[in-house]
Input
Amino acid sequence: MTGRAELAPLRRVLDSRPRPAVLWWRDDDAGRPDPRLDRLLALARAAASPVALAVVPAWLEEPAAEAIRTTPEATVLQHGWAHEDHAAPGERRIELGGRADRGRLRDELARGREVLALAFAARFLPVLVPPWNRIARDLVADLPGLGFRGLSIWDEGDLGRLPGGLVRLDVHVDPIDWRRGRRWLGLAAIAERLAARLAHADRPIGLVTHHLVTGPEAWHELALLLELLHEHPGARLMPVGSLLGEAG
Output
């Protein structure tokens, strides 16, 4: 097990837990062939770590689909339709809402489900990951009817009471500082944030990465973090499919 000093706060929390912490790993913006996607998949295989890829259906190309299919650790979630911004001027970016016609959005989500189900079969799970972690409240009620069982956004997103048959499986820790040039936070800061979340967590805690903005210096640190989560008896890094019935 890795002994890096930066991981000490996380290791102490895991050592002290009365029962193992449950975590899951989501990576966003997949669909196009890219060396960084290949590196992410290679890392998941090497670390024996299940990763849920949020795939943009309109971006999907066969070389990327084949790379995902040949990685046993990878499952697929639906990342909207085309990752397009429909926000009104001055508002925060959103694809599933904003000025977009709701009927069009529903049709695109249904089409996206068909694309991913055809490409990935049972490896595709009916979990929606809205681009930018945002979705209009008036669309949430439609998700079970469109075949979705799960919704994954950032933990603080307030969507009110969810319709029956739909569970939330959110993410809580992001290693990227988006406001400061998409900067990798560093292993120490990431470990501290995870430790703070896991200290008293009684539900699955999600780590979200973004292979398209992960620089060369970050891959090694991500591998060290995954090694600890995989090997420490106080952590259980779980495939997302096993958590759908536990999330709430």
Summary: The mean pLDDT is 94. The longest strand covers residues 21-30.
